[in-house]
UniProtKB/TrEMBL annotation:
This is SMP-30/Gluconolactonase/LRE-like region domain-containing protein. It comes from the Bacteria. Binds 1 divalent metal cation per subunit. One of its GO terms (biological process) is L-ascorbic acid biosynthetic process. Residues 165-183 have a biased composition (Basic and acidic residues).
Length: 227
């Protein structure tokens, strides 16, 4: 089955995590993978459909992962030494028609900010899973948030939507406000997150080229790890 990379990020230790999903509508065919410091690619989770995120707390001991197609966000305890997933708990669920959790980030206070595709909003959750804020956006399809020095930046997508000029009201939004799908939006929210972490690889280690890594997560070189 052909698949593609969807979303990814580095944990605080410099390991790169990324999700893959099929090109077709197959449920449960998505996976989460981890690239280790030595360049090895390990499949750490399967049975997903559209994995999004992940996002890590500053100490690297917790990871959040969305499955957009299933309308859920799970939280995992992570061993910061070797990146193993230790357990999995349900964190947030979205009712049908309420949008789908997409990209996310964790702020300096440990709160999770989630772009909600199809709902035109960013949700903020406390560490205990309580929804503490909903930020409406002038775009229906937000995809990924980032927090920098008190400003929330949100990438949005226009795919599948009927193009509309900025001065033409979108009657599907409250008040007929203009829609800005396909743009990067910004709002002052007074919250920040740790800077993006770089991938830390060790050139010269067995299997790690000195410039780039060619990883085939669906190929035979990938190993699996049980949760």
């Amino acid at each position: 089955m052909r698949s593609r990379v969807n979303d990814g990020c580095c944990d605080p230790s410099g390991r790169f995590w990324f999700g893959t999903m099929p090109y077709g509508p197959e449920r449960g065919a998505g996976r989460l993978h981890r690239v280790g410091h030595d360049g090895s690619v390990t499949t750490v989770l399967d049975g997903l459909t559209i994995p999004n995120g992940p996002a890590f707390t500053a100490d690297g001991t917790l990871m959040y992962l969305a499955d957009s197609a299933e309308g859920r966000i799970d939280r995992f305890r992570v061993d910061p030494e070797d990146g193993r997933l230790l357990d999995r708990t349900a964190f947030a669920a979205f009712a049908p028609g309420a949008g789908s959790p997409d990209g996310m980030t964790v702020d300096d206070d440990g709160q999770l900010w989630v772009a909600v595709w199809g709902a035109g909003a960013v949700h903020r959750y406390a560490p205990d899973g309580t929804l503490t804020a909903v930020l409406p956006l002038p775009a229906v399809q937000p995809t990924s948030p980032a927090l920098v020095n008190g400003t929330l930046f949100v990438a949005t997508a226009a795919i599948g939507l009927t193009p509309q000029p900025d001065d033409r009201p979108d009657e599907t939004r409250p008040g007929g406000a203009p829609r800005h799908d396909g743009r990067v939006l910004a709002a002052e929210v007074g919250a920040s997150a740790p800077p993006a972490r770089p991938a830390i690889l060790h050139p010269g280690a067995p299997g790690v080229p000195s410039t780039t890594i060619a990883a085939r997560p669906s190929g035979g070189a990938t190993r699996r790890e049980a949760l």
